[in-house]
Amino acid sequence: MSGDNGALTVILLGAAATFIWRLLGIGLSSRLRPDDAVIQWMTHVAYAVLAALVGRMVIAPTGDMAAVPLTLRVAGLVFGVAVFFICRRSVLAGVVAGSALFMGLVSLVGLA
Questions:
Q1: Distance between CA atoms of 59 and 6, rounded to whole angstroms?
Q2: How many C-beta neighbours within 10 Å does residue 90 have?
Q3: 61: which residues sit within 8 A by CB, 6+ positions away?
Q4: What is 52-105 written as a DSSP string?
Q5: Which residues of the chain have a pLDDT value below 70?
Q6: CB neighbours (10 Å) of residue 19?
Q7: So what's the pLDDT on residue 112?
Q8: Of 52, 53, 61, 101, which one has the greatest count of Cβ atoms within 10 A?
Q9: Contact, 91 vs 84, CB < 8 A?
Q10: What is the per-residue pLDDT for 2?
Q11: Model-level pTM?
């Protein structure tokens, strides 16, 4: 029974540590200006990380993704970028559209 209490304690402490940072973020976010240079820099870093991850998945995939032809991966990427610009630079729309086309093409070709 003491082992169960130890696991519960670790879970609760982990949750508390996570929520403390989230609450601090909520409290501090009211003081931030969207046009501030630091905020713009963080936005650009987030876009760059997303682009790097997508680029790696397209160019040098691992696991099951490596079996998918490059043309299908590039088609999903190009479509996602096009939707991103069509939808007024909406990252969510671009990612969802590119992923949906990619999954559809993979299913159509019969790789899924």
A1: 44
A2: 14
A3: 68, 73
A4: HHHHHHHHS--GGGGGS-HHHHHHHHHHHHHHHHHTTS-HHHHHHHHHHHHHHH
A5: 1-4, 112
A6: 10
A7: 66
A8: 101
A9: yes
A10: 54
A11: 0.63
Report angle CA 95, 101, 106 to the nearest 5 degrees. 120
Query: Do 47 and 91 contact (CB within 8 A), yes or no?
Result: yes
Amino acid in the structure at residue 53: L
Q: Are 80 and 94 in contact (CB under 8 A)?
A: yes
pLDDT at residue 63, as a whole number? 92
Tracing tokens 């870093």 back to the chain, one arrives at 45
Cβ atoms 73, 99 nearer than 8 A: no
